[in-house]
């Protein structure tokens, strides 16, 4: 299968700390890869390595093109978007302004308007409050905004770092339904999650990262009921 995103021997170090070591990962078009693992396993460092915020060694390619030496902006323009851990929306800007920032590198005003309308309609609560400061949204609504903002750059690959963190189960289900919808439209997703059960609902492949290395790789069906679940993921399958 052709890989939309491919990581070969990717490593991340912070001084003496080896956060990620020789990571190999492949994601095809329309595939969702769940990256699971305990705190400090190197999940966010992997996301940072892919979008260019965190210096890394090894090779990262997007649609067959080596992007390892590109700056963050060039990777966004190339088709990589991230909804980061902790959401990082701009609380003093309005919902609509946050969305526009996601499209900052685009030069097609009509397309930007159409996409803005699309996401405001998809998440009616964002539509109703498009002119209010994003800081007035609830945690779940802010997460929806963070994902919609990332989608505004029209990515080929979406990196999601713990989208369910701190959210009520009903909201989590809605967010994962949305991820499933994006996948069906052909988007490739790298999904970092602590909520293994929800992640496995949408994932094609599951990678369990422990101390910066993949300790398990398989389909959600392979993983269910194995010791991996008990050892690293709180046992819930
Ligand atoms: N900027 C940094 N400087 C030094 N060490 C760091 C830095 N960022 C992360 N680390 C270390 O790298 C390791 C991996 O961290 P990372 O944030 O990638 O883990 P994670 O899997 O995302 O964890 P969590 O589930 O808690 O978000 C940890 O030991 C962490 O302390
Ligand atoms: Mg993290």
Sheet-strand content, in percent, reads 25-35%
Per DSSP E runs of 2 or more residues, the count of β-strands stands at 10
Order of helices and strands: EEEHEEHEHHHHEHEHEEHH
Q: Are there runs of 5+ residues with pLDDT below 50, and where? A: none
Kindly provide the radius of gyration, computed on alpha-carbon positions and rounded to a whole number of angstroms.
Answer: 17 Å
Any ligands, ions or cofactors bound here, and which? adenosine-5'-triphosphate, magnesium ion
Number of DSSP helical runs: 10
Gross geometry: globular
Please tell me the overall pLDDT: 93
- Structural class call reads alpha/beta
What does this structure look like?
By secondary structure, the protein is α/β, with parallel strands linked by helices. The protein contains ten helices and ten strands. It has helices spanning 43-51, 72-78, 95-102, 109-122, 124-128, 139-151, 169-184, 196-202, 220-223, 227-232, and strands at residues 3-14, 17-28, 32-36, 57-62, 65-66, 80-83, 157-161, 188-192, 205-210, 213-218. Strands 6-7-8-3-9-10 form a six-stranded mixed sheet, with helices on both faces. Strands 2-1-4-5 form a four-stranded antiparallel sheet, covered by helices on one side. β9 (205-210) and β10 form a beta hairpin. The two termini are 28 Å apart. The site of adenosine-5'-triphosphate has 12 residues, from β2 and α1. Adenosine-5'-triphosphate (ATP) binds next to β2 and α1.
